[in-house]
Amino acid sequence: MCGIIARVGETDDAVDELLVGLENLEYRGYDSAGLAVKNGSGPTVFKREGQISRLKDLLADEVPAGELGIGHTRWSTHGPPTDENAHPHTGCSERVAVVHNGIIENYESLRTELRQRGHEFESDTDTEVIPHLVEEHLASGATPEEAFRMTVRRLSGSYAVAMLVDESDAIYATRSGSPLVVGVRDGKYFLASDVPAFLDFTDEVIYLDDGDVVVVRPGKHEITNLEGRSVERQTKTVDWNPEDAGKGGYDHYMLKEIHEQPTSLRQTLRGRADPVTGDITLEDFPSGTFDGVRRVQLVACGTSYHAGLVGNQFLGSRGVPAQTFLASEYAVSPPPVDDSTLVVGVTQSGETADTLSALRRANAAGARTLAVTNVVGSTAARECDDALFIRAGPEIGVAATKTFSSQVVSLSLLGERIVRDTTGHRSDDVESVLSALSDLPDNVQRILDYTKAHRIAKRYRDSEAYFFIGRGSAFPVALEGALKFKEISYEHAEGFAAGELKHGPLALVTPTTPVFAVFNGRNDEKTLSNVKEVEARGAPVVAVASDENEAVAQYADDVLTIPDTHPDAAGVLANVQLQLLSYHAAELLDRPIDKPRNLAKSVTVE
Ligand code: AGP
Q1: SS3 for 168?
Q2: Of 192, 218, 229, 219, nearest in space to 207 by CA
Q3: Which residue of 29, 113, 312, 379 sits 20 to 30 Å from the alpha carbon of 528, by its own alpha carbon?
Q4: pLDDT tens for each residue of 441-493
Q5: Contact, 351 vs 375, CB < 8 A?
Q6: Is this structure's pTM higher than 0.90?
Q7: What is the β-pairing status of strands 188-192 and 541-546?
Q8: Ligand 1 pocket list (CB less than 6 A)
Q9: Interval 320-359: pLDDT, tens
Q10: Number of helices followed by number of strands (H, E) in the chain
Q11: Protein residue with least CA distance to atom 15, ligand 1
């Protein structure tokens, strides 16, 4: 959940570039920030509790010079957000400085052992055992690289680590279970938790595998495994540019990414769906790819879980047995699988630890695995048998928006491919579904042009709680609407299956709890009867429905309209209105929309 960055080059402006990297990484954690720089002598550490702006204040008087440095932005797992617990961490002699993302599960036993050897610890973190262990090995005569390897072999858990040592002009790094990529440009190197961190400086990327150890010096890099044997890793060019990682003139990344959806959806659809012929072309999934698949299990977390729920409804309604599981639950109590089971991991970052461990369980149990992800080269994409990329472009705002829309579209196209291979025939309504999906970019633009979400957010601010309801594939959209609302506004919001209200949640409904009812053109009359139930309790109702749905307009106090379309596409449109509603509600409450408290963009620990 933390963000790490490192830089080595021939010019002594490492700190300037590290600070740019840290700002690009801040969505991964913002409890504290720090960096260490080397300029001839030992690593000099600067760190502060709080956001990167506080670290910049610390450096404001004089930016330290140096060719190589490491940096970190923290999401606390072990020890509260304090200066002491901020990274980088050093050992007793301060010859070694380390930044880390992940969790060292055996840190307590290592601490006890090191304390018995006279080491003293300054922080509560698991990470601090690393520099102390390295010091131990250096003291026994090991070279910095040997000391690094010997230390890494003692660690269990998940980690991406970068290390500076006073007597070396290199940076040493490795990964196991946490992401780490290398950026290269004209002999200068960056190491980071993800590509957007150094996109301002290079689009040349080397993806590392778990167990890789990389040593970078000005003009030179070496990748080996933990035993020291050299391994080959290709350099790839990513088709992202620095603007993608910028706010593009919007107040928040979230608003920018909501407005990017017409473009990101076109990218997701490009060359994949022909509404005239009903043809589906998924680059790595030709016809017959899924012959022999008898059931589909989708595993995911948060927003991706909601997209997965839409995906399994698409499959189920076309005769393919499918179920979506919360990845953290799947990892601890997996359902039966066999080699005719396809397990699809839905994960925009491709690095969510819960989803990775669910996929690893499925893999180990003999299932086929497939990652539906936004990040080429991510761990999920590399560990699964197959990967389908949703092509939404980098998403920086912690609240997932455009990736939900691209996930739903990708899962629908993948779903149709699976339907054909498993049932032997196309879906009856494939042309109209593909036509509706192809209309999504323009329809989303219409909503962005005419939405009155701001007015609705204002009208219902200061409500006691916010409820979202829907049926069928509108139910996951209700869940997603509630998740977005609570994660960025901090208000009490919940999503319910509309039919479930009368079995309990209706007790929560009062005149001060607005109910947002999502209509997708399927079972609307049933959802309308649930609207009448809440109205009878005096609750204001805001319908999210087609602009041609007169019945709904008659009953609702307000309507967030969407262009009329196929029910399998309506959910994406309704969700755009709910994204805007949440954004404006949070804005009215002056919340830190891109960095909501206690959350992080990519949750890399279980
Ligand atoms: C959604 O806004 C949140 N950021 C979070 O729930 C997220 O969807 C979840 O952590 C899954 O992330 P992933 O898609 O990268 O796996």
Answers
A1: coil
A2: 192
A3: 312
A4: 999 999 999 999 999 999 999 999 999 999 999 999 999 999 999 999 999 99
A5: yes
A6: no
A7: unpaired
A8: 301-304, 347-349, 352, 355, 398-400, 487, 602-603
A9: 999 999 999 999 999 999 999 999 999 999 999 999 999 9
A10: 18, 26
A11: 349
